[in-house]
Specification:
InterPro entries: Aromatic_Lyase (IPR001106), Fumarase/histidase_N (IPR024083), L-Aspartase-like (IPR008948), Phe/His_NH3-lyase_AS (IPR022313). By secondary structure, the chain is mainly alpha-helical. The protein contains 13 helices and three strands. The two termini are 36 Å apart.
């Protein structure tokens, strides 16, 4: 994603780079020749200088690169294995390649996409928890939620109605850690470049923290999903709604019921994988009702 974002910026024609160099970068991207880029090294001031320097390093045939054909190897070898030549940069093109915020943007984009995916699945998991706790569905009545002008609230209530067929904790420490991770990175700004950049955004660290928070939320919801499915076993032979039964069957395809003591870490990892692949949201797609 980072290389694609960099190409997008360079292609706009405002970065002082030649077409020849841009075409060479696009050829490397199309061949999936990707430079090794460390996730640390940017303060988010004038750009992600260190990470983008590593991006350019591989393109000029130095450092490490990866491709599906070669795996990780010497950058020059990887390029040559795909019939490509290392870049020979023209005046000022070095600066054009390293000045930008595509590291922050790529990490931030992944965090946003995963957050949206887990938010959709969180409603389904919460509905299953409500069901096994024998909660009431009256709280999600469409007329009640139409009283307040909050689209997000109404959408969540609609999701609950859809899966409940109603018209009307390792997890604790993970949640606690998220509280610390949500502390703004910008307050830890440091003066850089001999004080010419007296305040920096620390955007790279903020983006990495956002990704970590999303992953922690995924893990917490994976644990809740496991607990809710196990609770459903205690209510058998009673059945829940078709969409929630589908969620239960999905979980049972990768994790068997806890009928005796066993190591739970593999089960949590399997449930987390389901959520990462957005499979828990499938029942919502298959069983929806009008809002």
């Amino acid at each position: 994603m980072l290389l694609a974002l960099r190409i997008n910026v360079l292609a706009k024609g405002h970065s002082g780079i030649s077409l020849e160099t841009l075409h060479a970068i696009i050829e490397a991207f199309n061949a999936s020749c990707l430079s090794f880029i460390p996730e640390k090294g940017t303060v988010g001031a004038s750009g992600d200088l260190a990470p983008l320097s590593h991006l350019a390093l591989g393109l000029v045939g130095e450092g490490k690169m990866w491709s599906p054909v070669t795996g990780w190897s010497n950058a020059k070898y990887v390029l040559e294995a795909h019939g490509l030549k290392p870049l020979s940069l023209k005046p000022k093109e070095g600066l054009a390649l390293i000045n930008g915020t595509q590291m922050i943007t790529s990490l931030g984009a992944e965090a946003v996409e995963r957050a949206l995916a887990i938010a959709r699945q969180a409603d389904i998991i919460a509905a299953l928890t409500l069901e096994v706790l024998k909660g009431t569905t009256k709280a999600f009545d469409s007329d009640v939620h139409a009283v307040r002008p909050h689209p997000g609230q109404m959408q969540v209530a609609w999701r609950f109605r859809s899966v409940l067929d109603s018209d009307v904790f390792s997890s604790e420490i993970t949640v606690s850690e998220n509280k610390v991770l949500c502390h703004p990175s910008s307050v830890d700004s440091l003066s850089t470049s001999a004080a010419t950049e007296d305040h920096v955004s620390m955007g790279g660290w903020a983006a990495r923290k956002a990704l970590r928070v999303v992953e922690h939320v995924e893990q917490v919801l994976a644990i809740e999903l496991l607990a809710a499915c196990q609770a459903l076993e205690f209510h058998r032979p009673l059945k829940t709604t078709p969409p929630l039964e589908e969620v239960h069957q999905l979980m049972r395809s990768v994790v068997r019921p806890w009928d005796c003591d066993r190591f739970m870490s593999p089960d949590i990892e399997a449930a987390h994988k389901l959520l990462r692949e957005e499979k828990a949201s499938t029942p919502l797609t298959n069983h929806t009702i009008s809002g």
